[in-house]
Design brief:
Layout: H1 9-18, E1 27-38, H2 45-53, E2 57-66, E3 75-81, E4 96-104, H3 111-119, E5 130-135, E6 138-140, H4 145-155, E7 161-167, E8 174-176, E9 180-182, E10 185-187, E11 205-206, E12 215-217, H5 218-223, H6 236-246, E13 251-261, H7 287-300, H8 307-327, H9 331-344, H10 348-361, H11 375-393, H12 400-421
Parallel strand pairs: 1-2, 1-5, 2-4, 7-13
Antiparallel strand pairs: 3-4, 5-12, 6-13, 7-8, 9-10, 11-13
Helix pairs in contact: 1-2, 7-9, 8-9
Length: 422
């Protein structure tokens, strides 16, 4: 993260392109367009853009969608890549050109809405078959991220959506490796922050993935009427994946594709309007936005005839959760819980449309997809791992060298005590 990032996004892009290291080990796949959405806060953008430029397989088009009114007119830059084939070179390799396009997405209301707005402003090209969607704070954690995605897509051609393993910004702790359905919500069954030791790399088909770092075929967007921005950035991926799974499609997570995701807005490092939170200020609490996204998902996951009862139950639940938040000395979150039932009422029109879309596109119920359900056994194992992780975090873990040193000190003390006694 660059704390002193320039406010000139065009300057950042130009500088990174001019400083791009020359390499014959890179190739270009013109069937993929990467779209990076950028907020007012630019602290993470240069790291993300640089990580994209380091990919062994580069997307043929890189779109930078600025959501902060800094790009008034689309701007295009290009650079060439000369890939070296394996083995003996008998002919001069052909140049491949990568387009870098800067566009404005000022009025976008969510991540996916910014992506949609960006690609609608120019001819993306008939050769493009998929979008690689990235936040400005979700960088590829290594040089093979897109390559792993494309290999998985080639080996799983029926996949409707491919998601990446989500890590923290340093790239060591886990956020999620796909998600599973659990009642009227989705859960990752990953202990947030636990070290990535490839313990979840056996996962493939899941109920939902994060759109940050996801490879989204254009055919999928067309078949499922795009991504609904009404759910917001925190909820749109779960609704989109739900519609795909219930509509007979496949959502696949690719654990070998690793995305280091700072989750700036979720972690309180960024305000809702995209501005950075000052380093000496308290983190912005994203609790209300997260709970609203969960509530939208829950309402649209049940038949509309149940909505009155669900709303009455939400009042009872709000009272209980509000008291619990107050007991935990979290007055802001208590206020959020108490206002949630009333905040849900203006959104009923959007919920009605979203539920109608699910009914129209759905072919099966979530219960008919047992492998995509969290289930009691998986949930129990997750809770046990969570308890063990929290206990371990509060305990000092000694390595073999430290243990041997303590044993030697203990033996020396006992020897000195025995000598003194003699």
């Amino acid at each position: 993260m660059n704390d002193n990032a320039s406010s000139d996004i065009q300057g950042i892009v130009t500088d990174l392109l001019s400083g791009r290291p020359y390499s014959h080990r890179q190739d270009v796949d013109s069937s993929v367009a990467a779209v990076i959405t950028v907020q007012e806060d630019l602290r993470f953008f240069d790291s993300t853009f640089e990580a994209v430029l380091r990919q062994r397989i580069l997307p043929g088009t890189i779109v930078v969608a600025d959501c902060a009114r800094r790009v008034s007119q689309p701007m295009q830059l290009t650079f060439d890549v000369i890939p070296s084939p394996a083995g003996v070179i008998t002919t001069m390799p052909e140049n491949k050109t990568v387009r870098v396009i800067l566009v404005g997405a000022d009025h976008a209301v969510s991540f996916a809405d910014a992506v949609r707005s960006a690609i609608a402003q120019f001819d993306i090209g008939a050769e493009v078959r998929a979008l690689w969607m990235l936040h400005d704070d979700s960088r590829p954690a290594d040089d093979s991220c897109l390559e792993a995605m494309l290999d998985a897509w080639k080996n799983t051609p029926m996949a409707s959506l491919l998601g990446a393993k989500q890590l923290d910004w340093p790239g060591r702790g886990l956020h999620d490796v796909g998600m599973y359905a659990d009642g009227h919500k989705v859960v990752s069954l990953v202990v947030d922050g636990e070290p990535d030791q490839e313990q979840y790399d056996g996962r493939s088909d899941v109920f939902a993935v994060s759109l940050a770092g996801a490879l989204v075929p254009l055919a999928t967007l067309k078949a499922w009427d795009g991504i609904d921005p009404w759910f917001g950035t925190f909820g749109e991926s779960r609704d989109f994946c739900r519609r795909i799974c219930l509509g007979g499609g496949r959502v696949v997570v690719v654990p070998q594709a690793r995305i280091a995701h700072a989750r700036a807005r979720f972690e309180g490092l960024r305000l809702r309007n995209g501005h950075a939170v000052d380093d000496d200020a308290e983190p912005a609490d994203s609790y209300l936005a997260v709970r609203e996204a969960q509530l939208k998902y829950a309402y649209t996951d049940v038949h509309r005839t149940w909505w009155p009862l669900l709303w009455l139950w939400s009042i009872v639940l709000a009272l209980g959760l509000g008291v619990r938040c107050l007991a935990a000395k979290q007055p802001y979150r208590a206020c959020c819980e108490l206002t949630l039932p009333w905040r849900a009422l203006p959104g009923l029109r959007g919920a009605w449309r979203a539920r109608a879309r699910i009914r129209r596109q759905g072919k099966v119920s979530a219960k008919a997809l047992p492998t995509l359900q969290a289930g009691a056994a998986r949930t129990r194992q997750w809770r046990e791992r969570q308890r063990a992780f929290l206990d371990q975090r509060d305990t000092v873990i000694l390595g073999p060298l430290a243990k041997a040193h303590l044993r030697r000190r203990l033996a020396r003390r006992w020897g000195m005590a025995a000598a003194a006694a003699a």
